[in-house]
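User: Watch each token:
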Amino acid sequence: SWVAIALLGLALSGLLRQIHLLRSALLSPQSPVDPVERPPVRELAPRHASRKVVLFSDPACASCGRLLPIFESLAESSEDVEFAIVVPDEGNGVSSQRIELLQNQQSLFEELRIPVTPFVLVVDSSGSVRDGSPVGSPSMLEAVVRTASNGGEA
């Protein structure tokens, strides 16, 4: 029984180390969360609103597939924000007319240093990234859209 407890302790410490490494990578100065160093991305700028919520997705990502219906629902109910989905290759068909689909955009993933999917950026009318974070749950996605709808105010 002591051996099992020791093995569980080692496994837990390994998981905590991985969480720390991922958090450090996401919050580093080179992170996509830091919009200061990022040049404007004109192709992501909203055309008719002050903000655009951009979901970086991958057809092979199970979490992305689960968030897609929620993203479509948010797009249909949020009139003051534009929406887009960016995928590295083909795929992720969307049924909402309010969502712009940008396919074959691996270079955009690299340019913006998108570390994981699903990942959301909020872009203003000049194409500047105002916010960005990985989203792993519907509530996180809803919070990003709510913040974008309020012009960046939480």
Q: What stands out?
A: The chain has four helices and five strands. The mean pLDDT is 81.
